[in-house]
Automatic annotation (TrEMBL):
Protein name: Reticulon-like protein
Keyword Transmembrane helix: yes
Domain Reticulon residue range list: 62-247
Transmembrane segments: 73-88, 94-113, 167-200
Gene Ontology terms: biological process: response to bacterium
Major subcellular site: endoplasmic reticulum
PROSITE patterns, per the entry: RETICULON
Presence of keyword Transport: no
Renumbered residue ranges of the record's region Disordered: 17-38
Lineage, top ranks: Eukaryota, Viridiplantae, Streptophyta, Embryophyta, Tracheophyta
Keywords, comma-separated and alphabetical: Endoplasmic reticulum, Membrane, Transmembrane, Transmembrane helix
Length: 247
C-alpha cells in the first residue's frame, strides 16, 4: 500500500511540473519577438537614404568603379587621372600642345608606313573611317539641354525667395566652390573630386553604421542651432512689403 501511495504522489508531482512547463512555453510564444523587423525602429541614414550606396550612385559601371567592384578598372581610371594631372600641372604641359603633338606623330607614322610598304613588302595599315553618329550627337545635345534647363529652373526657384533653407545651402556651396577655385585651377579641382569619388563611397559603404550614427548627432545639433538662429534672426526679417491700407 505504501508503494502505491508513493507512486501516485510522484505521478501528481510530474503532472504538475509538465503543466507548468507547457503554460510557461505558451506564454513565451505569445510574447512579441524583439527580433521582429517590424518592431525595430527605423535606422537613420544620411540625407534620408533608403537605397544601398551602389544604387544611390546610379548603379551600373560608374557605381562599380567608385565602389571598386572592378578593382583593375577603378585603379586604371585613377592612374590615368593621376598621370594627366601630373602631366598638365606638375610638368606644365598644355592640352592643345599635347593634342597637336599626338596628331603630328600619328600622321607622320601612318604616312611613312603607307609609302614604305612597297619596300618592306607589307600592306599599309587600314585606317578606319570615323563618323560621329547623328543619334549620338542628338542624344548628347538633348541631355545637355535638359540638364541646363533643370539648373535654370532650380536657380529661378531659389531666387523667388520661397525656400530660405535651400537658398542658404546653395549660397554656402557656391561660396565654398569659389574659395576652392581661387586656391586651385579647374583641372586640379576635377582631379580632387575624382579622387574623392574613388575614396569616400567605399569608405562610407564599409563603415556606414558608424558614419550614419555620427551624422545623426550632427544633424540634430545643426537643427538645434538653426532653430536658435531662426528664432533670433530669421523670424525678425520681414517676409515682404506691407500691404497698402484701405482708406
Amino acid at each position: 500500500m505504501a508503494d502505491r501511495s508513493e507512486d501516485s504522489l510522484m505521478e501528481k508531482i510530474a503532472q504538475k511540473i509538465h503543466e507548468h512547463n507547457s503554460s510557461s512555453s505558451d506564454s513565451d510564444d505569445e510574447k512579441p519577438k524583439s527580433s521582429d523587423p517590424s518592431i525595430k525602429s527605423k535606422i537613420y541614414r544620411l540625407f534620408g537614404r533608403e537605397k544601398p550606396v551602389h544604387q544611390v550612385l546610379g548603379g551600373g559601371k560608374p557605381a562599380d568603379l567608385f565602389l571598386w567592384r572592378e578593382k583593375k578598372a577603378s585603379a586604371a581610371v585613377l592612374v590615368v587621372a593621376t598621370a594627366i594631372w601630373v602631366l598638365f600641372e606638375l610638368m606644365e604641359y598644355h592640352l592643345l600642345t599635347l593634342v597637336c603633338h599626338c596628331v603630328i606623330l600619328s600622321l607622320a607614322f601612318l604616312f611613312v608606313w603607307s609609302n614604305a610598304s612597297s619596300f618592306i613588302n607589307k600592306s599599309p595599315p587600314h585606317i578606319p573611317q570615323v563618323i560621329v553618329p547623328e543619334d549620338l550627337a542628338v542624344n548628347i545635345a538633348l541631355s545637355l539641354r535638359f540638364e541646363i534647363n533643370r539648373l535654370l529652373a532650380t536657380l529661378r526657384e531659389i531666387a523667388s525667395g520661397r525656400d530660405l533653407k535651400k537658398f542658404l545651402v546653395v549660397i554656402t556651396g557656391l561660396w565654398v566652390v569659389s574659395i576652392l577655385g581661387s586656391c586651385c585651377n579647374f583641372l586640379t579641382l576635377f582631379y580632387i573630386v575624382l579622387a574623392l569619388l574613388h575614396v569616400v563611397p567605399i569608405v562610407y559603404e564599409k563603415y556606414e553604421d558608424k558614419i550614419d550614427s555620427f551624422g545623426e548627432k550632427a544633424v540634430r545639433e545643426f537643427k538645434k542651432q538653426y532653430a536658435v538662429f531662426d528664432a533670433k534672426v530669421l523670424s525678425k526679417i520681414p517676409k515682404g512689403p506691407l500691404k497698402d491700407k484701405k482708406n
